[in-house]
Design a protein that fits this description.
The protein is mainly α. Helices cover 37% and strands 7% of the residues. It contains 7 helices and 6 strands. The protein has helices at 24-29, 32-35, 80-109, 124-156, 160-165, 205-209, 232-242; strands spanning 39-40, 45-46, 51-54, 59-62, 66-68, 73-75. Strands 1-2 form a two-stranded antiparallel ribbon. Strands 3-4 form a two-stranded antiparallel ribbon. A hairpin with a 4-residue loop joins strand 1 and strand 2. The two termini are 39 Å apart.
Length: 255
């Protein structure tokens, strides 16, 4: 609930793109409109390629899968692992409760009762058992369906929003963006089941996130460079974009 889902910070700047002649200094000093990159007019800041704006949280989230009312937070690259662990362990607890209820029913209704006391001490115990059974069945079915739906996200590194929009992204080889780290082709790792933060190799972290903080290798990171603020032309461009709907808009379509 309190974990950062991967919100784009206000000082995020586009990545350098040597193929388009955009070096690190240009990415720091030029605005997203000048670079031909996406711009979120709600946040009034740069929007990475795989970020989406959440109207509930009122912020852009990298690899946003959906907004979950159960945790009152967006599910993105920063907490997708925690969300999957939440529904997985909830499913296990429902399965454990169902197994205890089955054993209780077998113990009381099938096995011989010779030499044993009553199965229920009070009549209200039956109400509690029925309530536990209904809860285990409902939440067990719900979380199992969620895990089946999320399997494709883990295996393909494509979120629900990516699939709905039909977007195709080039994934880094041998990298799992949900659980972090590398070695995805080697199968599951034990740390996938531990509630520890997702970590990516430092050499590719910016590439996965789609942005970098205003600090480059040739400068002291303790003294970051402040990106250039939006000019009047950028504000005019943002106003023009607002006339074309509330969805994501590519800056290159209007430049």
């Amino acid at each position: 609930m309190t974990t950062d889902p991967g919100a784009v910070p206000p000082d995020a700047v586009p990545l350098a793109d040597p193929e388009k002649g955009i070096d690190e200094m240009a990415a720091l000093t030029m605005t997203p409109a000048q670079l031909g990159r996406r711009f979120c007019r709600r946040c009034n800041s740069f929007k990475p390629a795989r970020a989406h704006h959440c109207s509930i949280c009122k912020r852009c989230v990298v690899k946003m899968d959906h907004h979950c009312p159960w945790v009152n937070n967006c599910v993105g690259i920063g907490n997708h692992k925690f969300f999957l662990l939440f529904i997985f362990y909830t499913f296990l607890s429902c399965l454990y409760s169902a197994s205890l209820l089955f054993w209780r029913s077998w113990f009381c209704g099938v096995l011989p009762r010779r030499g044993r006391g009553p199965c229920l001490e009070t009549t209200t115990d039956f109400v509690y058992l029925v309530g536990l059974g209904v809860e285990a069945m409902l939440f067990g079915l719900f979380t199992s369906c969620m895990m089946i739906d999320q399997y494709e996200t883990v295996s393909t590194n494509l979120t629900q929003i990516d699939r709905l929009k039909g977007e195709v992204h080039t994934n880094l080889p041998d990298i799992n963006e949900v659980f972090g780290g590398n070695g995805v082709r080697g199968g599951c790792r034990p740390d996938w089941l531990a509630p520890i933060p997702v970590q990516f190799p430092a050499s590719i972290r910016d590439e996965i996130m789609g942005f970098c903080r205003p600090c480059i290798k040739t400068m002291n990171c303790d003294s970051p460079v402040t990106p250039k603020k939006n000019t009047s032309d950028d504000i005019e461009l943002s106003n023009l974009m607002s006339k074309h709907g509330e969805g994501d808009v590519e800056i290159g379509d209007f430049v």
